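Task: sequence design from structure.
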């Protein structure tokens, strides 16, 4: 039986999922005027509008529409695209993996860039190197993702020819090659948070009594760093990365359009421009659930990394 803390987290996630379902359901209904008219445009005939209303079930009572929506979600049915007349799930199936791959690649680059930078800054707090490491990543907050992406395309793709200017490739190696620049753009946007968090945690961990005791016992410096300093310092860094996954996902959706990656972001932009509300509704639901799931995984990772949390859970049983 789970501890009260884990049950509380699960209940909180379930409440968040319920709110997401309600909000995405109301997405079509908050459009000013007739949703069917908004989808088809002002020039559409009344017969076409009426047909679309019947197809989307907009003429049914709101409670009936909500029950039908939830019933469809349980069956894995997110509706049908108005523009392409195919199930939304079919459209998303071919677009999901490029987005997931980009998010994972960006998260990996974030970790690979954060660890050495934070360790370098934490080694001599207040030094020139420390100030440089903390200042340079802040540029990522001020650079719009689409602009930074265009700069990288111009330099690394057009001038140097090291990476493709866009697309996704055909083979796994081509996928990795094509996603390098967009993953870098996405990672840069959250580096200031992860570097600062890991740097502060490393400084605090290095000053802890257990580190001084390990050094007094003659434990080699490398082992002190990996076993005592880094392991304890990475816990808040993991939490910060997890909490910023929403930001990471949001930037990914923008970056996909800049680099012409056939993922969920590109589909969301195209569907919004074509007023394909069922697709936008389904994508909003999936992205929100992805963020909630990532936050849950962050909690699991934090418990796995911090023995104190495991002990507290066992003690609560």
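Answer:
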């Amino acid at each position: 039986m789970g501890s009260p803390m884990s049950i509380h987290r699960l209940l909180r996630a379930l409440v968040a999922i319920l709110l997401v379902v309600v909000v995405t359901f109301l997405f079509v209904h908050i459009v000013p005027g007739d949703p069917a008219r908004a989808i088809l445009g002002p020039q559409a005939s009344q017969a076409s509008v009426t047909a679309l209303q019947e197809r989307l079930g907009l003429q049914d009572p709101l409670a009936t529409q909500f029950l039908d929506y939830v019933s469809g979600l349980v069956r894995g049915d997110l509706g049908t695209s108005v523009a392409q007349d195919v199930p939304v799930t079919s459209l998303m199936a071919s677009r999901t993996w490029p987005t997931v791959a980009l998010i994972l690649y960006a998260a990996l680059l974030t970790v690979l860039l954060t660890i050495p930078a934070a360790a370098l800054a934490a080694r001599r707090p207040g030094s020139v190197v420390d100030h440089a490491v903390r200042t340079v990543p802040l540029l990522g907050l001020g650079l719009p993702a689409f602009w930074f992406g265009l700069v990288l395309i111009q330099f690394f793709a057009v001038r140097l020819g090291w990476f493709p200017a866009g697309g996704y490739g055909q083979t796994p190696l081509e996928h990795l090659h094509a996603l390098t620049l967009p993953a870098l753009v996405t990672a840069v946007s959250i580096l200031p948070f992860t570097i600062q968090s890991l740097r502060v945690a490393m400084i605090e961990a290095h000053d802890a009594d257990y580190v001084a005791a390990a050094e007094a016992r003659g434990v080699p410096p490398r082992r002190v760093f990996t076993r005592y300093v880094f392991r304890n310092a990475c816990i808040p860094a993991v939490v910060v990365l997890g909490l910023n996954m929403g930001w990471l996902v949001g930037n990914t959706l923008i970056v996909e359009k800049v680099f012409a990656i056939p993922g969920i972001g590109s589909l969301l932009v195209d569907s919004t421009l074509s007023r394909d509300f069922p697709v936008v509704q389904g994508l909003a639901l999936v992205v929100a659930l992805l963020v909630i799931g990532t936050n849950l995984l962050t909690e699991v990772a934090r418990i796995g990394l911090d023995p104190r949390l495991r002990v507290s859970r066992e003690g609560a049983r």
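DSSP finds 16 helices and no strands in the chain.
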